[in-house]
Specification:
2 strands, G-protein coupled receptor, disordered N terminus, disordered C terminus, globular, Rhopdopsin 7-helix transmembrane proteins, two-stranded antiparallel ribbon, G-protein coupled receptors family 1 profile domain-containing protein
């Protein structure tokens, strides 16, 4: 997450400026645009398919919410990050840095809140057997609250983020990048903001672990019951038994998809947290790196972008129907019935989830 200022000690740098820039920021210039293109195309496909091609239910609504947040990060934060990387001496550097940090952290917090909403919905349906779960209307309201909460909690970014520098002593090069400014470190507002972020992270992680533990346990119990029924042919062939098995299969598939989304979310942020701690405590480690070492270090900082583009791939791997819709779009078959013609809304989210069973391994 850096931009560049290159200086030499004693000897004036006469090499090609763009060559120097790419030497120290090549990983960023290659990785960020690639994630942007793949992520924007993928999330637009997700939003289009689940909004226009499929009838609406709680599962498609949750996926659209995550796609909107990922698109916000990719279209707002990533271009600004590229600008910071290329134009470290710009007069707009600090303002752009604050905006980038606000959007990136805001979408991350809002996404984590949406993951909690999804987990609660799956818990209500699977463990407490409530047909409506959270419900589409309440889900939309909670989504709006999550976005407002994420914006409110990130207001301190205005006073915390700014210009920071790292000096690479072996190469006599100084890199300027967007990070917590030196002036804001150890200030009360920074300490309070850090404590809030830690509290949110621990709370979200704990809630997700507890809920998904109960969900997985319930799914395991259901699987054992169905295995028992299969060993008793007289019960396994009954209409009611087959219906319950299909219902359990649908709920299991959708739950596993969202578990995968949650795991990828936290896994993508793990390398970033490591670099964050190192940047805050051991600046000498980064200063001793070579350009190649810095490239890997920058990729670790940019790992959260993987989360922004990963969900479309998860949906594609787990849903035959989603892949079929993508193929139809690529062959322009969607134009035959109207490209932006939306399917009729379903009367019940649970009944619609069950109707997808024959078309997909996941709804």
């Amino acid at each position: 997450m850096a931009s560049t200022t290159i200086k030499s000690q004693g000897i004036r740098n006469t090499s090609w400026a763009e060559g120097e820039l790419f030497t120290w920021h090549g990983a960023e210039f290659l990785f960020i645009p690639a994630m942007m293109v793949v992520g924007i195309v993928g999330n637009l496909l997700v939003f289009y398919i689940y909004h226009f091609r499929w009838t609406s239910n709680s599962v498609t609504l949750f996926k659209r919410m995550l796609a909107v947040l990922d698109l916000a990060s990719l279209t707002l934060a990533c271009p600004a990050l590229l600008y910071l990387t290329a134009r470290s001496r710009s007069s707009a550097f600090v303002a752009t840095c604050i905006f980038t940090s606000f959007v990136a952290l805001g979408t991350a917090i809002a996404s984590s809140c949406v993951l909690v909403i999804i987990a609660v919905d799956r818990f209500l349906k699977l463990c407490l057997l409530r047909k409506t779960g959270v419900g589409p209307r309440l889900s939309k309201q909670l989504f709006a609250v999550s976005v407002i909460f994420a914006c409110a909690i990130n207001v301190p970014c205005v006073w915390i983020f700014g210009m920071s520098t790292i000096y690479y002593q072996n190469y006599h090069v100084q890199i300027t990048y967007c990070f917590i400014s030196n002036e804001s470190k150890n200030t009360p507002i920074f300490l309070v903001y850090s404590a809030l972020l830690v509290f949110v992270f621990i709370t979200v992680s704990t809630v997700l672990v507890v809920l998904y533990y109960k969900i997985v346990k319930t799914l395991r119990d259901l699987s054992n019951k169905h295995d028992e029924l299969k060993r008793r042919p007289s019960l396994a062939t009954g209409t009611e038994a087959l219906k319950k098995e299909k219902q359990s299969q649908v709920m299991r598939n959708s739950a596993m998809v969202f578990i995968a989304v949650t795991v990828v979310f936290f896994a993508s942020y793990a390398p970033y947290f490591v670099t964050l701690v190192l940047s805050m405590t051991e600046t000498s480690v980064e200063g001793a790196m070579s350009p190649a070492g810095k490239a890997f270090y920058d990729l670790a900082k940019l790992c959260p972008l993987v989360n922004n583009m990963a969900n479309p791939f998860i949906y594609s791997f787990t849903s035959d129907r989603f892949r079929d819709e993508v193929k139809k779009m690529l062959t322009f078959k969607t134009c035959e019935k109207g490209f932006f013609r939306r399917r009729a809304l379903s009367l019940g989210s649970r009944s619609q989830e069950l109707s997808h069973f024959s078309d997909s391994r996941e709804s």
